[in-house]
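A further point concerns the way the authors explain their paired sequence and structure data. An entry of this sort, consisting of the sequence and the corresponding backbone structure tokens, reads as follows:
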Amino acid sequence: MSNQNKLSLKEKIAYGSGAFGYSISNTLLLVFFNFYLTDVVGFAPVYATIIQVLRKAWDAFNDPLIGTLNDRSNGRWGRRKTFIIVGLIPYGLLFALLWQVPYFSSSIENLLWFIFLVFAYDTAMTLVWIPYNAITPELTQDYNERTNLNGYRQAFSMLAGLVAVASVDILAGYYSNEKEKFSVLGIIAAIAIVLPFLIVLWGIKEKPHVVNKQEAQKIATLFKETFSNKAFVVAVAIFFLSWVSIAIGTSMVAYFVKYWMHIKPMKILLAIQLSALVSIPFLVKLSEKIGKKQTYIFGILFWAVVQICMIFLQPDQETFSIVLAALAGIGVGAAHVIPWAMIPDCIDAGELQTGQRREGAYYGVLTFVEKVGSALALGGVGLVLQLCGYVGAAEHQSSLSIWAIRILMSIGPAIFLLISIFVAFYYPLSKQKHDEIRKQLSKAI
């Protein structure tokens, strides 16, 4: 590996810290936001579904738009950093507002308020998150160094997940009122979102870039070009399926432990996050030895088996549930590290194919697909709960609702994980293939 492709520890930590900020917001939204809407704000599941689907739909739409605009830009502080600076403070403030229960006179007014908030929040978040992702392939061109860099990133992400779920448990000891607890949580989390990205801005040196006319790509051609890249299509499909699994399972944890297991969710969530965090260095090393595709298949197959076993959990089996959660964390680690490490290699393949580098466009399309998957997953979860008679904040749920919660927590995610394994067999970029691509790109310079 050349010194040009070797990153310092400072650069890896500075880069990885951004994932801490994003994961704080993403973890809290994935794990608690649906529960917060139904059991704290008091929305019927169908209203919560409307909010979640519209949030993800808008987020999916603006991802490729902002990605393309970012690729075209030449900001004062660099094309990536300028966008981050513009979006960062609104990102934190609007996240805090999401957790403040409104006091309008009707459910429709509350619904409209939340729709406005999620649109504004996701716009600000995208201004930060897409450029942050687009920096990844610009930092190093080495196949294994990218996996290592994403290992740092996902380690910070898992650490943030631990902090996020632990914070909810800690605040519960100080605030018995759920509205007060989530209100304070939103404010503290907003600070934890902003500060890590300041470290990114300080610690990462963005390479100078001059936009040429060929890069002024029309939005209409964005999907056509990126989806002509076979490696990217497969990686996106893997990403889509794994995130559908994550969205379904994570959004059901709070319901599953409250209405079926009758235990506190924090031990389960902490077991998943801690296990995933510890597994990351081993997954990175395994990927260096056997390849990204093979590591993904191994980790996700293991996770799918564990997920299926969760259907057999019985109420009050806390120890068994913690063990299964810890085992699932290994697969969660693989789902976080490997697909993200594949994308920079796919961008290199795209550059060889078209002669242009459009990191923002690729990451915009990637997150577009992720958000569509999350929207379908969260929308499906909400509709199933509504159809099965779920009643928010009720002391007991119907037998049909309980079975729906159990299946959504176990079998549902496992199905999508198994499909993603089948898709992963078609991923074409090995280390050897990527090295050939880099050699051809070097000759073209």
